[in-house]
Amino acid sequence: MKRTVPLIITAAGGFTLIVAFFIPATESWGEVAAIWFDILAAIAFILGGGNLVRNHLKKISDQTAGWAYSVITLAAFFITLTVGLFKVGARPMEQQEYYGQRFASLSLEDFPLEFSVEGTIPPKKSGRRLPDSVHGQLVADAAAGTISFRGWMEPNQLDDLKNYKHLLEWQATVETLYDKAQPPEPLRGKAFYHAGHRALAFAGRMSEFEYHTLRELAGTPEWLAAVDALYEATNQTAEIECPADALPERFDAAAISPDLSYDEELQRLRFTGPMPLGLRDRMVRRFFPVATPLSPAAEQVLVNLLKQAGPLSEAQIEALSKAAAAGWTFDQLIAEVNRAGEPVQVPKTAREMLAEKQAGATVIEPMKTVGEKRTLNNLQQKFLREFDSSEMTVDDLVEGLRRMGPLSARQVAALRAFLAKQPTAAERNKELGFALLRAGPLTEEQRDLMFGDYRKQIRWRRYVGRLFAAAHVVKFPWSGEYRAVGTPFWWLYEYAFKPLTATMFAMLAFYVASAAFRAFRAKNLEAVLLLGTAFIILLGRTFAGVYLTSWLPESLSFLRIEELTIRIMQWFNTAGNRAIMIGIALGIASTSLKVLLAVDRSYLGTGGD
Amino acid sequence: MSSGHRGRYVGCLHGQWQWAWLFAQTVAALLIACCLVAPAGAQPDRPPSEVAPPAEVIAKDHPWDGGHKIDVLFRPSPDDDRVTRDAEPSATTQGGSDANGAQGGPSDQKPRIAAYIVSRAEEFHGVYEDVAFYVPEAADYRDGWLRVTVDKCERGEPYFFRVRAVASSGAQSGFAETSEAAIARRQWFDGGRIWMLLITVILCGAVVTFILIARSGRSLRVRRIAGLEAVDEAVGRATEMGRSVLFIPGIQDMNDIQTIAGLTILARVARTAAEYDARVEVPTSRSLVMTAARETVQSAFMAAGRPDAYDPNSIYYVTDEQFGYVAYLSGMMVREKPAACFYMGSFFAESLILAETGNAIGAIQVAGTAQPAQLPFFVAACDYTLIGEEFFAASAYLSGEPDQLGSLKGQDVGKLVVGAVLIIGCGLATMAAITGSETLEAAVAFLKGTMLR
User: Fold this and answer.
1) Which of these, B418, B88, B363, B391, lies nearest to B241 by C-alpha position?
2) Closest residue by Cα to residue B326 from A47, A508, A53, A64
3) Which of A251, A481, B139, B349 could serve as a FRET partner for A304 with CA atoms 20 to 30 Å apart?
4) What's the rounded Cα separation, in Å, for the pair B317 and A56?
5) Which stretches does DSSP call E strand in B242-279?
6) pLDDT tens digit string along A221-243?
7) Strands of the A101-105 sheet, one edge to the other
8) Rounded CA separation B59/B38 (Å)
């Protein structure tokens, strides 16, 4: 029995894989067999790990020669296992955390709102089920001819349902259902229901009005309890200590968010509610103006300031000029805004396309053009070129541009996005400072001039980061990647494991040399041939080899050493290799058959049961 | 369908022949369209285009597949010069030359068709998405139909197709479309693998046949394999020197046939070691290999009548990590200096590090692998090397059982088949290159693309 069972498992697994290769209906069997092997191997790893620990503990206990290495091995084993298994220092996954939202538990059954539209779910002959993202939420009532959705539908659910079946009528029905299955207007974009998490969620701080609106949607105790919990959760205040000198110049908490405040007396920065990622980023950059292109006059002013602070060589001035010219230009910004002013192609809704089809159209284009062409007029361009971020905010800039001519929402968004991608003046100065340092030394005063603002920005960013972390309640602390950059596991891998592995691999070079020395001894004709071939191949792969025979005329180019190398590798080497590989393939087929038919059982040992 | 397309195409001509030609073409095309069995639908409101669309489209299930493919067949656009080139003389006699003559020679005016675009929708006159950009080759025009196999169709679901012609100028024609749904169905057998099945049956059949012949009592001769003869010698040497035998079963898991082949040799090595009272050490890089190797060695010791000498602690797990494993083995070899080293399994970059270390300590070394890239290293540094198929023949060779020797003979039949295919293939390819014969080229393409795919 001890040998029969493995033989049966082997034969069953092997024949399953063969059948799965030829018969499409059984394709999944092969995948299942492979998964089973992985599970088995994973379980067996426990055996291996246990064996490793046991062997090394025995060595330590017996104090056999080299037992200290066993101590190191075991220590490394347990440290790596711990930091990897418990994801020590790994940040939670961003998409799992829903930064800027707070959650309150509410099961799908307790979600009191259900939205219905007329229609049916088109059947799938392949037996494919509805998308997993709407599992349990979407149901059809065949008798009433309606489809119902429990919960508020999210955009990804809409996309999944539309992709379930590409029929315009179905997609139009889903779009209608999506529009219905949304929270009422004041809560739209703020209140969510994540069925997968069994949670009601709210983005940002919930106001009294929003709280009452949400409560009035239903009167079940579960719903009210969830809304109350959510209100409380979104109105929690997080605070961190932040010295006044860490605040940026012209800091104005209200300009960022009404939920942000600074207590000058206690020197504490406070934020009420969860902080979204966008707000965090805005906080970091809001008081550090974007770097606008340096005019020659501004560049000269900077040079003069630097000269007042210390000596500056010609090379440094040139380096500064080059580095300053590498930044963005107003022409680029104008081109970007004008590009955003072009009419754009946007996808049509399924309802629009269905209407076209019902009107008799046979060619339905899925895209439509919206908007009219808008380019910045001369006045707007002039105003844009005069933009100085130290005197004017981006909001002022947009307002000014609107006063001088038409400006579409897409153009405003493009302008903001363009400027958001550019470095701040502090970051630009830092880059200029590095350029100066590469060209020559800087005095302490000059360094302060170039790097002072950047230091402040970095310091402020740290405080913002701390406030962001304090304002966030971690939902899934173990959702992060254990080998993410910066984690202890990554550190061990990068700075201990990789160098050690590379060291072992590097030793191969020396072993190749010693093996070649032995293999290439010209003892007989075969060895001489081997030596000659190796000589050509080795030489042909070096610059020297190419150089040595480069004098050969074009008519004799086939004798050039690099050409000979290619020919040897392509013809002789490939032919020899293929002969071996054909033999190997036949050997594998024959051995596999013997194993499957249990003709060869020697891998299970030669004894009986 | 065709009438509309052709009508628009000749619409640029003038003179009375133009109308006569248009009328004749319209009537002819209508007659053809009525006679067609294929579900090609007309396109009533095709957008103006100078390029005529394909004349007819049919879509049907791709035969003998897993139910994810549909074949779209269509007649090339009348403007496709690879079709019309042969038909031009007859067109001339029908008065086409006069019609076309107004603007020069017939082929000069035709927009050169560069490709066809196939698009697909799940409902008739729904939203069609492009699924194939097809550039036909000369051989594709043989039977007057062009074929495109559209993949990634959902099994059992209806699909509708449209085909447009694309001129080399980039201009696109209107479309020809199917009006009936095509459904991808799953067949019980994957026809694309029929040749593979045939080869498998021949090879396996040969192996099974020779096993039966061997069982009938006929003696089978197997050539001497020095590497396997050396097993006893190596273990004997270790016994004499009072040192251990090191057996390394590669760095792959039990799902690799090389590891299994390695374990079959381990059985023999362990049995010999048991008989000689030598110690066998088997460090493994996979847990499953460790457990399997323990079974193998234990059984071997029992078969040798020395179950008491079996020490499970001599077969142990080191690490899954390639170079960690190598580091351990190299250190162990230098410290303990085994007298015989066996490397039997799947090896990669570690092969030379191990073999050179073994060489440095003066051990007798026997290696066997089916990794062609590692064979030169083993040949250079080991005393004996089992090259490729020899490695897989070890079990049969060492056991000497008729069943197993029969399988080796079956393998030889496989070699004969491969040799024959090689000779035929090389001959056909050479003849095709010399004569330029399309038939021979097609035969070579069939051999390479279909039989040996």
Assistant:
1) B363
2) A508
3) A251
4) 11
5) 245-248
6) 999 999 999 999 999 999 999 99
7) A101-105, A199-203, A191-194
8) 9
Q: Which of A374, A398, A356, A479 is nearest to A98 (CA)?
A: A479
| Alpha carbon distance B446, B453 (integer Å) | 9
List the single residue in B296, B302, B323 with the smallest CB-CB distance to A505: B323
pLDDT at B346 over 70: yes
Class of domain B226-400: alpha beta
Q: Residue with structure tokens 């173990």?
A: A478
Q: To probe the interface with B, which of A16, A603, A604, A609 has the most B CB atoms within 10 Å? A: A603
Q: Tell me the HSE value of B36 on the side-chain side, using a 13 A CA sphere.
A: 21
**Complex confidence, ipTM:** 0.79
- C-beta of residue B52 within 8 angstroms of C-beta of residue B44: no
Average pLDDT score over residue span A520-548: 88
Domain boundaries, chain B: 2-188, 193-217+404-451, 226-400
Q: What is the pLDDT of residues A46-66, one digit of tens each?
A: 889 999 999 999 999 999 888
Chain A residues whose CB is inside 8 A of the B315 CB are: none
Backbone phi, psi, residue A288, to 5°: -120, 100
CATH number attached to the domain at B2-188: 2.60.40.10
Q: What pLDDT shows up at residue B110?
A: 58
**pLDDT 10s digits, B59-101:** 999 999 999 999 999 999 988 887 755 544 433 333 333 333 3
Residues of chain A with Cβ-Cβ distance to B313 below 8 Å are: 55, 58
Q: What would the two tokens of residue A383 be?
A: 């105003």
Nearest to B126 among A167, A595, A607 (CB): A167
Cβ A236 vs Cβ A272: under 8 Å: yes
pLDDT of residue B90: 39
**In whole angstroms, what is the distance from residue B334 CA to residue B362 CA?**
10
pLDDT at site B37: 34
Chain B nearest C-alpha distance from A25 (Å): 7
For A324, B2, B17, B97, B393, the CA distances from B108, given in Å and listed in that order, are: 58, 22, 19, 12, 67
Which of B389, B390, B397 would best serve as a mutation to test chain A binding (most A beta carbons within 10 A)? B389
- Span B284-322, pLDDT tens digits: 999 999 999 999 999 999 999 999 999 999 999 999 999
CA distance A485 to chain B (A): 21
The angle at the Cα of A118, spanning A113 to A120, to the nearest 5 degrees, equals 105
Q: Do A65 and B335 touch (CB under 8 A)?
A: yes
Nearest to B349 among A508, A590, A594 (CB): A508
Q: Is the alpha carbon torsion for A510, A514, A515, A521 positive or negative?
A: positive
Q: How much is the pLDDT for B206?
A: 92
Which bin fits B187, alpha (ψ -120 to 50), beta or left (φ > 0)? beta
**A76 with A493: CB under 8 angstroms?**
no
Residue B301: C-alpha distances to residues A435, B164, B322 (Å): 74, 73, 30
Nearest CA to CA, how far is A74 from chain B (Å)? 12
Contact B392/A581, CB-based, under 8 Å?
no
Residue ranges covered by each domain of chain A: 4-85, 96-234, 292-451, 481-514, 520-602
Task: Classify burial at B372, counting beta carbons within 10 Å of its beta carbon; exposed 0-12, middle 13-18, buried 19 or more.
Answer: middle
Are A363 and A396 within 8 A, CB to CB? no
